[in-house]
Amino acid sequence: MRTPESPPAGFSHQVRRCFGRQAAHYDQGALLQAAVAWRLAHLCRNLALPNGPCADLGAGSGLLARAIAQQRPGLELLRLDNCPELLAQGISRAPGPSLQWDLERGLPSQLDQAALLASNFALQWLQQPERELQRWCQQLQPGGWLAVAVPTAGSFAPWRAAASGAGVPFTGLGLPDAASLEAVARQELTLHRCRLLHFSRPSQDGLTFLRQMKAIGAQASRKAPLRPTQLRQLLAHWPTVSRPQPDWQVLLMLGRKR
Prior knowledge:
The protein has helices spanning 10-21, 26-29, 31-44, 63-71, 84-93, 129-139, 157-166, 178-188, 206-215, 228-236; strands at 54-57, 78-81, 98-100, 114-120, 140-151, 189-199, 248-257. It has a 7-stranded mixed sheet with strand order 3-2-1-4-5-7-6, with helices on both faces. The protein has one domain (20-257): Vaccinia Virus protein VP39 (Rossmann fold, 3-Layer(aba) Sandwich). The protein is of the alpha/beta class. The longest helix has 14 residues, at 31-44. The protein is 39% helix and 20% strand. Helix 6 links the parallel strand 4 and strand 5.
């Protein structure tokens, strides 16, 4: 496994640390991420790919890379992630090429003129998702493909409603706007698929939801955590309705470089 030349800093380091602590439990808890990875891989199974490098960006434990390999045998993706513990988990399940890499640095030169860049639940962790998405598109060769799934700003409706009702700050990760990401992609790509998917889990209280996030290492935030009294207020205002609001709004895009 290759490593970056310099260590990560700031929020990138916080994300790496949180996921690293829970790496051994990630696949067990990341059921939504696995389901979306399988759907994304299904879109890639019959793509006419030019010759060139293929990669899973923010691969984590390799959910997407493995799903693509299962649905398209023979196609091996370079797995990039900033968390060595997650990469090691993926390699233990299915050996393959990997590179420890902080995506805040852009993409490595070996992915110039890429044939396929795929990413699942990773773009939202970057400081400027729209800028990085544009870089990914630009690094594709003509005829190359981008396949990406990313949670967007319509996510966490129950959490936001609870924070508003309790009068406490919403401390979840700020997620990118779906329309802005789509606009960036359309500048470089011909989109063959662009859908907003909504996921919710019925009868899930706030404490269970937040614990599930922490259990897979997805609790990193750029905002200060709530004080204990604020957390109790938040949980007391968590919506309990017969028709659940979506916990996740996920943008799924498949596009070809013009």
